Automatic annotation (TrEMBL):
<comment type="similarity">
    <text>Belongs to the glycosyl hydrolase 38 family.</text>
</comment>
<dbReference type="Pfam" id="PF01074">
    <property type="entry name" value="Glyco_hydro_38N"/>
</dbReference>
<dbReference type="Pfam" id="PF22907">
    <property type="entry name" value="Ams1-like_1st"/>
</dbReference>
<dbReference type="InterPro" id="IPR037094">
    <property type="entry name" value="Glyco_hydro_38_cen_sf"/>
</dbReference>
<dbReference type="GO" id="GO:0030246">
    <property type="term" value="F:carbohydrate binding"/>
</dbReference>
<keyword id="KW-0326">Glycosidase</keyword>
<dbReference type="InterPro" id="IPR000602">
    <property type="entry name" value="Glyco_hydro_38_N"/>
</dbReference>
<dbReference type="InterPro" id="IPR054723">
    <property type="entry name" value="Ams1-like_N"/>
</dbReference>
<dbReference type="GO" id="GO:0006013">
    <property type="term" value="P:mannose metabolic process"/>
</dbReference>
<keyword id="KW-0479">Metal-binding</keyword>
<dbReference type="InterPro" id="IPR011330">
    <property type="entry name" value="Glyco_hydro/deAcase_b/a-brl"/>
</dbReference>
<dbReference type="InterPro" id="IPR011682">
    <property type="entry name" value="Glyco_hydro_38_C"/>
</dbReference>
<dbReference type="GO" id="GO:0004559">
    <property type="term" value="F:alpha-mannosidase activity"/>
</dbReference>
<dbReference type="InterPro" id="IPR041147">
    <property type="entry name" value="GH38_C"/>
</dbReference>
<dbReference type="Pfam" id="PF09261">
    <property type="entry name" value="Alpha-mann_mid"/>
</dbReference>
<dbReference type="InterPro" id="IPR027291">
    <property type="entry name" value="Glyco_hydro_38_N_sf"/>
</dbReference>
<dbReference type="InterPro" id="IPR028995">
    <property type="entry name" value="Glyco_hydro_57/38_cen_sf"/>
</dbReference>
């Protein structure tokens, strides 16, 4: 007489769990029969190397015998194994696997080709030697065979000492735990998957769901039917499962678009060089699955990683090309790397897309339609326009699910940038990009989806990331099994294009819009961590911009001068790729281990050295060799400012050709100071002009008084600003009467977990003044061209600050050249400028424009932005006046109640224990102004600080040349470069910077040119809007063009 199952859900569930467990009852349960027969390897031989060497070099080395149980290290070393195996004849007709578990990452090589990755951490330890019954070719036949295995001495996420994100344990060893061949029972394997799915449905579905109980009793019946070791009982159990899974969903059920994925950080807790091998290990696994499952798809971003695999693993790359063509291996993103979403300049963003899209077009004949950036730390409000100008109108990320104060309100929506450009955006509601294909994940995806009723579909990205070898066969099989099962969302193997196209065709009119930045309420310490990386990034961006401008001019002029100069396309391409590589979203933010920054700074030194050589060559092709110096202005407006001439600079100034005593000065370092004027995008010999008014300094008991006819200030003996006024309004002190400006501050900076990443809201409660003055303010330079005041302070017993506070003749701002010896532990250095200005908002410089943020904490969304990202300036203004803080290499700001703070240095200890330790030098400035931001000149002055006039000796010019001018400060000509595809075309990139419509006139000395609108990929685009090109006399051509607010426009000019 049969017994009816008790209504004891817990015991029935646990029974099913133990039946397939890999930890309990493994001598008798179903899992124990997955590999029913095993045999040791014939032999294992080993060769160790500290380097990552190619296969051809490795197999020529001397291998020595080793065995299971031995350990291998240290961290980052490589161990090659020569494995001899034999498949017994008695196993004929059965599926046979090689089982290898070195508790680390590894790669199987056969006949010189990388075949498949292995990973002990996620139990991917099986390599199929022979598969049967599916018509697929095998990697082995009966008899002996040699297999090589390349073992990397690191885990999936490096080797953090006593914690994931801790600095690596450099002496770690990894044990070879398993090495054998085994028979694989696929019938048992399929049954294991069905039991797991049914168990999980019973466990995860709510108590009031009938389907969950149906799953519970079905899996219980299957176990009752099974006799472990009896294949006929497996068939009966399988039939029970088939009946359950045959019950289908309704038409209205939510559809999950499943896409294989393996997010691989280009560097993070491992160096760049290890990423190359991670790509090979993961992508080779995926290729084997794509061969076996034609319906499977795999999405993969980052052109840099494709290029690495092409160079180092040509057989893998050949297979990738095949599966890209079939539509299974899908390039996504369109960028060179998955870069940081806040810190890169606008032009760097453009180059990410330009180089990425060109790579995918050249290699695979396609351009990506979607921007793929799932793991960066916030997203600039200018990205939608840049994306659309690079042929992309779709966007995917999931990082906003990490918010810790406010839950983002959408998963599928329109994202609108500061210019109004919109892109269709989707955040996979599973809140991760490495799903493991669990019932719990499918149910959570549906439950968490915040656009129910507006949309009935979402993306599901599955697979191990960061070297975990991507999707597994188990994941693919479970997705197939759950394709259309009553009680679960529908599952569809799909592609990004199919998903977004279905949204566009059926649901786009239902979607909401989010305007402005996507601010991540975490990881805002990354605006500041590894300050030298940020500094070199800014310097690199600007240097390559300058090189391109001068190289373009030299190229155009060479057509008439016959100088033979050739545009250095190859060098610039290489340098841009190095810079873009270092903008990866764990390198530029400062959240990688120390060894990554050894590589990063090597690349930065290369950029500076080679970039400056290219700049000198291009300038030499423009100016003649001679005895004088020339000064170069790479910005789009005339500049009058003080420059410093060292003893090596030959100029009229050093020949004592002067216009008056008021326009000369030797500073405290012995250098000549000259007040000069240089035209827009121009080159000239150093012309000396009269200063508008001398700068004066007067030390009194109340402080040090500075004035230059544009502003006046009073400093105390600590170098703090007590008073700051525009000369036109001397009665209005823009500094708060109760709190001085240039107040240096130190905060405790201990986050909840993510050390290099996070600065927490509570750090603001630990504010302490840096007021231990070791040298009171001393006047070093007294004018008339420059006043310099020096002050020194002690932060702690181990950290010190020296500042040179400077006001130049004709300058609207005071600069603070700051040197810091920094040796703190989890402290945060900032400088603040409390203002007397009342305004509800503060403006911050971003890519190709600015963004306004609240100057208050009214809502949780406002208070969450207690630390924000900005570029060269931040400004608080009312209708009549304002104050801006400028900088040459910083990105972190905060603003509240009229106080502007600039973040200077952090000192986290993980994952790099030495992050930011050492000496730093940077400059910031404070600029009072009349009128609103747009009238103030703040934007131009911030550019001036970041792009100082370039002085080069040993050149002569017959005439002063201005190659481009723009008739309005509302439009900035940001980039002048040669076209990627033509030697007789140049690209101009301009943007409207005030946030309003205008018409601009761009004048150039180049004649007989044609002008076309193009996108950021340098493809000509039709545009019916006004664009006019006219000749002005015999000397100039004028281009007239209309701009919308914050619009980015690229022009392709044929010369």
């Amino acid at each position: 007489m049969e017994h009816v199952t008790f209504k004891h859900k817990r015991t029935t569930l646990e029974r099913a769990d133990k039946f397939i467990s890999s930890h309990h009852f493994t001598d008798i349960n179903l899992r124990s029969r997955l590999y029913p027969e095993k045999q040791p390897l014939v032999s294992i031989q080993h060769y160790a190397t500290p380097d990552r060497i190619p296969y051809s070099q490795a197999i020529s080395q001397t291998f020595k015998d080793t065995q299971v149980g031995h350990s291998f290290g240290p961290t980052w070393s490589t161990h090659w194994f020569k494995v001899e195996l034999e498949i017994p004849k008695s196993w004929h007709g059965q599926e046979v696997h090689l089982l290898w578990n070195s508790d680390s990452e590894a790669l199987v090589w056969i006949d010189g080709d990388a075949i498949q990755g292995l990973s002990g951490e996620n139990e991917r330890i099986s390599f199929p030697l022979r598969e049967v019954g599916d018509g697929k070719s095998s990697h082995s036949s009966n008899g002996r065979q040699i297999v090589y295995i390349e073992m990397a001495c690191n885990g999936l996420c490096g080797c953090g000492l006593n914690g994931l994100i801790n600095p690596p344990e450099l002496k770690k060893c990894f044990q070879l735990k398993q090495a054998e061949v085994a028979v694989f029972d696929r019938q048992v394997y399929k049954l294991l998957l069905d039991v797991e799915i049914l168990h999980d449905m019973a466990k995860e579905m709510t108590e009031d769901t009938e389907r969950g109980y149906q799953a519970l009793y079905t899996v219980n019946r299957m176990i009752n039917e099974c006799t472990v070791g009896d294949s006929s009982s497996y068939q009966r159990a399988q039939k029970i499962a088939d009946e359950f899974f045959a019950q289908r969903n309704g038409d209205s059920q939510h559809t999950i678009y499943a896409m294989g994925h393996s997010h691989i950080d280009t560097a993070w807790l491992w160096p760049y060089a290890e990423t190359i091998r991670k790509c090979a290990r993961s992508w080779s696994c995926t290729l084997r699955l794509l061969e076996k499952y034609p319906s499977m798809t795999f999405t993969c971003s980052q052109a840099q990683q494709y290029e690495w695999v092409k160079q180092h693993y040509p057989s893998i790359y050949k297979d990738i090309q095949k599966f890209v063509k079939s539509g299974q291996f899908i390039p996504v993103g369109g960028t060179w790397v998955e870069m940081d979403g806040n810190i890169p300049s606008g032009e760097a963003f453009v180059r990410q897309f330009l180089l990425g899209q060109r790579y995918f077009q050249q290699e695979f004949g396609l351009k990506c339609k979607e921007f793929w950036l799932p793991d960066t730390f916030g997203y600039s409000a200018q990205l939608p326009q840049i994306m659309r100008s690079c042929g992309i109108n779709r966007f995917l990320t999931q990082k906003m699910s990490w918010n810790i104060y406010n839950k983002f309100p959408h998963h599928t929506f329109w994202w609108s940038g500061i210019d109004g450009s919109r892109v269709l955006s989707h955040f996979p509601p599973g809140d991760t990009y490495h799903m493991m294909v669990k019932v719990k994940e499918l149910l959570y995806t549906l439950k968490n989806f915040r656009d129910k009723g507006r949309s009935s579909r979402s993306v599901y990205l599955y697979g191990y990331g960061d070297g975990g070898n991507g999707p597994t066969e188990e994941m693919v099989n479970k997705l197939e099994r759950m394709e259309n099962v009553d009680g679960l969302p529908k599952v569809k193997m799909s592609s990004p294009d199919e998903f977004f196209s279905n949204i566009e065709q059926k649901e786009e009119k239902n979607l909401c819009t989010w305007s402005g930045e996507l601010y991540l309420e975490m990881h805002n310490g990354t605006y500041t961590t590894h300050a030298e990386v940020k500094k070199q990034n800014r310097k690199g961006e600007l240097l390559l911009r300058d090189v391109e401008f001068l190289a373009t001019i030299a190229t155009v002029l060479s057509g008439t001068s016959g100088s033979g100069y050739k545009y250095p396309s190859g060098d610039l391409d290489r340098l841009w790729k190095l810079l873009l590589l270092n903008q990866f979203h764990d390198v530029l933010p400062g959240s990688s281990i120390g060894i990554v920054y050894t590589d990063a700074h090597e690349y930065y030194r290369d950029i500076q050295k080679t970039g400056n050589q290219l700049l000198d060559k291009s300038l030499a092709a423009i100016a003649q060799k001679g005895d004088n110096s020339v000064v170069v202005n790479t910005l789009g407006w005339n500049r009058r400012e003080v420059i410093s001439l060292t003893k090596g600079d030959k100029s009229p100034s050093r020949k004592k050709i002067k216009t008056g005593e008021s326009s000369q000065q030797v500073d405290h370092k012995g250098d000549d100071l000259v007040y000069c004027e240089v035209p827009s995008f121009g080159i000239s010999e150093i012309p000396q002009v009269d200063i508008p008014a001398p700068v004066t300094v007067n030390q009194t008991e109340s402080g040090i008084q500075l004035s230059n006819g544009l502003l006046s200030a009073v400093l105390d003996n600590n170098g703090r600003i007590i008073s700051l006024c525009n000369t036109s309004s001397p009665q209005v002190n823009l500094i708060n009467a109760d709190y001085p400006g240039n107040q240096l501050l130190i905060y405790d900076d201990i986050p909840l977990y993510w050390d290099a990443w996070d600065v927490m809201d509570y750090h603001l409660e630990t504010r302490k003044l840096v007021d231990n003055v070791t040298q009171k303010a001393v006047i070093l330079d007294k004018g008339p061209l420059r006043v310099t005041i020096q002050v020194c302070l002690r932060i702690s017993e181990v950290s010190h600050i020296k500042q040179e506070i400077t006001l130049d003749a004709g300058s609207p701002y005071i600069t603070f050249k700051t040197q810091v010896s920094w040796h703190e532990n989890r402290k945060f250095l900032k400088v603040e400028f409390p203002t007397s200005i009342h305004s509800n908002k503060v403006s911050f410089d971003i890519q190709y424009g600015f963004i306004e943020r609240p100057n208050h904490y009214n809502t949780s969304w406002d208070s969450a932005r207690f630390e924000v990202c900005g570029h060269k300036w931040a400004d608080i203004s009312d209708y009549n006046q304002g104050l801006a803080v400028l900088n040459d290499c910083k990105y972190g700001y905060s603003a509240i109640d009229g106080i502007l703070r600039l973040s200077l240095l952090r000192s986290p200890k993980a994952p790099d224990a030495d992050a930011d330790m050492g000496d730093h030098e940077f400059t910031y400035a404070v600029m009072p102004h009349q009128g609103c931001l747009q009238e103030s000149g703040v934007i131009q002055q911030a550019c001036n600080i970041n792009s100082p006039l370039i002085i080069k000796s040993g050149n002569n010019l017959t005439t002063c040349s201005s190659y481009f001018t723009v008739n309005t400060t509302q439009v900035i000509l940001d980039t002048v470069k040669l076209s990627e595809d033509s030697g007789n075309k140049m690209v101009l990139r301009l943007y409207e910077t005030y946030g309003g419509s205008t018409t601009a006139e761009i004048s150039t000395i180049f004649k007989n040119i044609t002008v076309q609108r193009c996108n950021c990929l340098e493809e000509v685009i039709p545009d019916e809007r006004f664009l006019n090109v006219t000749s002005v006399g015999d000397q100039q051509t004028q281009i007239t063009i209309e701009f919308k607010p914050f619009e980015l426009i690229s022009l392709l000019i044929t010369f």
